[in-house]
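Whiteboard transcription, Tuesday session. T.W. wrote the structure tokens on the left side:
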């Protein structure tokens, strides 16, 4: 599901949350480990402050979105991408969405974490950086510089999330060893 498709769903069901913020929260929560689909729907309904009618209307699409998001996180070829607005939108709006995504990822991660989780030094650094990205500034010298910074932030988020996810799911790393034929 694209940003635009999720935005259309939110509009149709009268959800006022940002698609980027929601995807960040969802990915943070999914990073913590297995969560049943019905539990995810309940958590998401609470996070999105959905009425029962809104939840029922969004349920099938959200189910597909959850499964797709988890599949992207688990993909060992690192194809994960944060769900952000299209490049045609003004840079300020896209940077704001990056900040929302990152801060809500941290929020979702915090909600699902147990107090005794273990993460590598690289994972801790990635968490700190994501927290800083959540406070992103909308000040930039030039449009070109801002676009370059935006692209670098999105790529960094993509890699940081994969580092954290693989730290917390070492069982998925077993297939990364080279195979000799």
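and on the right, the sequence the group agreed on:
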């Amino acid at each position: 599901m694209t940003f635009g498709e999720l935005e259309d769903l939110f509009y149709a069901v009268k959800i006022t949350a940002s698609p980027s913020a929601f995807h960040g929260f969802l990915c943070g929560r999914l990073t913590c480990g297995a969560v049943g689909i019905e539990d995810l729907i309940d958590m998401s309904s609470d996070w999105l402050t959905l009425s029962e009618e809104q939840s029922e209307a969004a349920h099938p699409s959200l189910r597909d979105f959850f499964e797709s998001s988890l599949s992207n996180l688990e993909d060992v070829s690192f194809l994960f991408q944060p769900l952000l607005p299209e490049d045609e939108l003004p840079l300020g709006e896209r940077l704001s969405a990056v900040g929302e995504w990152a801060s809500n990822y941290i929020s979702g991660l915090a909600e699902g974490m147990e107090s005794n989780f273990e993460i590598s030094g690289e994972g801790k650094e990635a968490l700190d950086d994501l927290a800083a990205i959540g406070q992103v500034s909308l000040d930039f010298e030039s449009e070109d510089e801002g676009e370059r910074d935006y692209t670098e932030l999105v790529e960094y988020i993509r890699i940081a999330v994969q580092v954290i996810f693989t730290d917390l799911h070492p069982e998925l790393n077993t297939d990364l060893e080279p195979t000799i034929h």
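Someone added at the bottom: Helices lie at 3-13, 19-31, 37-47, 52-74, 91-112, 121-133, 143-168.
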